[in-house]
Amino acid sequence: MIENFEIVKYKCFENFKLEGLSRINIITGDNNVGKTALLEATYLSCVELFQQDSFFSSLYGAEGVINIALNRDIRPQSKNLTNYFRNFYLKVRVNECKVLRFAYQSKYDFTEEHQKSIRSNDTENEFDECIVMDNAKESIVFSFKFLNGLKDANIMNYINSSKPIQKQLVELYSKIQTKGIQHKFLSYLQVFDKNIVWIEPQLIGDDVYLRVNLHNPDISLLSSELGEGVNRLIQILATILTTSAKVIFIDEIENGIYYKKFKDIWKTIIEIAQKEDVQLFVTTHNEDTIEALKEASEEMEFDDISSIELFKKDGVIHPIVRNYQSFNASVDAGLDIR
Amino acid sequence: MKYLLVEGITDVALIKYICVQKGITKKFNDFQSETHRSSEFETYRYNDLHIINIKGQNKLERALELLIKPIEIKIDKLAILQDADNDFISSLKSIEDAIRNTQLDKSKIEIFLTPNHQGLGDLETLLLSTLEQDKISQLVCFKEYENCLQQHIDVSTKAMDKARLYAYTMFAKEGKDNYTPQNSFMYKQNKSYRDTGLWNIEHPNFKRIVDFVVKVFGNP
User: Which residues of A touch B35 (CB under 8 A)?
Assistant: First the structure.
């Protein structure tokens, strides 16, 4: 589990430290303060470590980068993606002793000294590193050290803020089938919508879809024909239930979901996160979502929660980290922690 | 962001009243609360101004630790309003201890002890001190009631002042409007708030607390 985290540099963050993280970490803050960027930095710091094979093959093949691109509505394999990551530099420290540095810039920008410093991070310093030629103009410099205890995980999960695409849902449901937990998954889903009777994949032409049978009216629809909320729930629950990674990232969890359902959603997430030993980083700027988390945690007597409110002062982003007691008291007192 | 911690609901009402009178807010209910009354602490917010009712002096350190310490970076001004009670020095020390124990930056913190940050007493002492008690019939009657009561029960000054304040507000307007102390500043009529006329904020005894509120919540 990630207990503390330091971003030396990434986008709007510089020398940014987070301590006192918990199993469920809810990230809040004003618009454009950097909630998603924080999620990205945390995610990238993990995903690239775990995805070294795809990372080595090419930047665009790296799952982390693709997910970030999708989240930012940038088409992978496009010039925009190159532009987005131009002059991109990430340096983070996880759990105090693990360092990751990830830079992406034109190879012509590298000075000799820079190259020397990259090479100095060799195996003597317990760093693995490489320089990947992405194309004639761009290079990636990457140096890293494995996270102890998290090394075996091979998939990281980043759920972006938009409606999930069918292919993702089918892949996730396929994992549910592989684990043989279709009924368990359905029972969790029915907490939110009792009208769902069954879900199964269906081949239509060359594509596979998720088909959902409903009780009343007694009809069968493709999941894409249902609301965004149902699709997001399928994605979130299936991800937590099937992940082999121990860390999951959810951007704007409230999107598409009816606010009155949130307490039950949190209770389910808390239950699964405990059973499956999963840590979550979740962004929101929705008051009902935060209030619902407080209520759900009280009812379940679950106190492994931290809230991280990002606050910008004099152009610098500061984290306001609350432990469970403080989070609970602040929400209860009506303090605005969004 | 500016935060003012008070120990009771009547303090909240007085602060809101001062803010309206001094033009810090436009309306009495500009300070909005989204808290349930059963909450341990209760926040009233207007833009970057916050009044937090901590519901008792003994909750100060807990409020500072749970609510204030995490947001210290956000705080431009923090103020604490409590009663001096019967020991000014001891009341002040207990606030300073709470600040020290929570390792808050003292330089941003203002403290005011009612009635006037000098003498002993509480909010009731302050409010009652602004009244011409021998010219208010219910308080003249209350004096006789007090004399009678003290022949039978040893009532503390604090309890007696609370009862006296209730007598003043509840029987104001000849008992036709039953104001509790916290509702005795302004009342709601036709969706807007009107002054009850029970308190004169220009009374010299209000000056110190008014200056304190203006210093904390007014423009820098």
Answer: 332-334
